[in-house]
User: Which sequence fits this backbone?
């Protein structure tokens, strides 16, 4: 994942941060509000490391998966739907009704 995912969805990452750094404080995370430099400084203090070491630890953590709260965000769904358009035949819209696939309920 990239830092902009973290910054845009900061509260959704609290559980993942607390899993990785159990001594982190949720109130202090709220104050950081997605600021990458502040987060690096915070993790450096928390783990008693140099900022460069903390930054590397955070980069390693960023290799992980996005939290489900972020993945389930409707903005990501719309983006995924748009990307699926490259697999559709010409002239078909990725946002069209998909009833022919049996996915839509018949009310």
Assistant:
């Amino acid at each position: 994942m990239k830092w902009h995912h973290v910054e845009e969805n900061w509260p959704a990452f609290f559980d993942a941060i607390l899993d990785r750094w159990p001594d982190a404080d949720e109130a202090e995370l709220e104050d950081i509000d997605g600021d990458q430099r502040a987060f690096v400084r915070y993790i450096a203090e928390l783990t008693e490391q140099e900022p460069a070491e903390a930054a590397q630890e955070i980069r390693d953590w960023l290799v992980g998966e996005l939290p489900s709260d972020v993945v389930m965000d409707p903005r990501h769904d719309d983006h995924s739907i748009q990307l699926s358009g490259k697999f559709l035949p010409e002239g078909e819209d990725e946002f069209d009704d998909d009833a022919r696939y049996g996915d839509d309920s018949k009310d």
About this structure: DSSP finds seven helices and no strands in the chain. The mean pLDDT is 81. The first helix runs from residue 3 to 8. Residues 3-69 form one domain.
